[in-house]
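Lecture 7 notes: from sequence to structure.

We start with a single chain of 291 residues. Read the sequence below before looking at the structure.
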Amino acid sequence: MPDSAYGRLPVPRLTPELLRLVKTGAVYSLGVEFHEGMLTPGAAMKSYSIVPHLRHSDPAAIDPGTAAAEVIRMSIHVGTHIDALCHISEKQNAAGKPASDGEPRLYAGEGRTVPAGDCVTSAGQTHLGAEQMPPIVMRGVMLDVAAYKGVDTLPPACGIGADDIRGALERQGSVIGADTAVLLRTGSIRLLRAGDPVYRDAQTGLTLEGARLLVEQGMTLVGADNMAVEAMPPLDHSVHRFLLVHSGITHVENLNLDELAAAGCHEFLLIIAPLKLTGATGSWVNPLAIA
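Now the structure, written as tokens:
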């Protein structure tokens, strides 16, 4: 059996080791509520919009029953979602180095990339799209960096580096290890709830140094309670490029980790089921942590 199902994600299998992570049976939903006008990464990303399509007052073929339905419109990268590996490319020169005048390239396996321009049609992405993502069943560790720093919410545009990660791990007695999902808590999710544009414009999150340490320690999936996992600005997506393009490690963004933090829950069974959205660069999700 292969040890990887999609990039660095492990093949989904509920093992005795994973089952032993469940001690109380408490289930935590890590998704946020979608609502009209919620913050997006920018104007190019359309916010959540819902329009009634069928009303209970409309004539129906199921009389005396009635039905209601709606049309929902929004970009994939809004609310709690997982990035597909085709979401971010890196412009590279002939030597495979980042270059502003280079060719955009996508992850294609360890040490390999493919031209992004060859991987898209009018029907969407053809390489490592969301429909190819497997169910995710793996060990999760919530790294409460805000608690380590002694605050409810880390300051805007604060970078989480290697020392912060080591300190938070030591404080909560956690270890990462192979095939672990690391979910970073900054406390920033309250800004999303409030519609505060600081959540988008001055993001607290991972630095490239911090991301490298997590990968060295065995992380194969990363998530955070911010919009991009990494700190922004700058806007060069260095962490996205390192993880998605070079490492085959994808992101879960806009997580609600406050209930886990309130319960002092740092280790759990993590379950995420991406939607089979053919050609999409990601999928909306409602991750579950079972402790």
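The domain at 16-43+74-86+128-290 is CATH 3.50.30.50 (Glucose Oxidase; domain 1). Keep this in mind for problem set 3.
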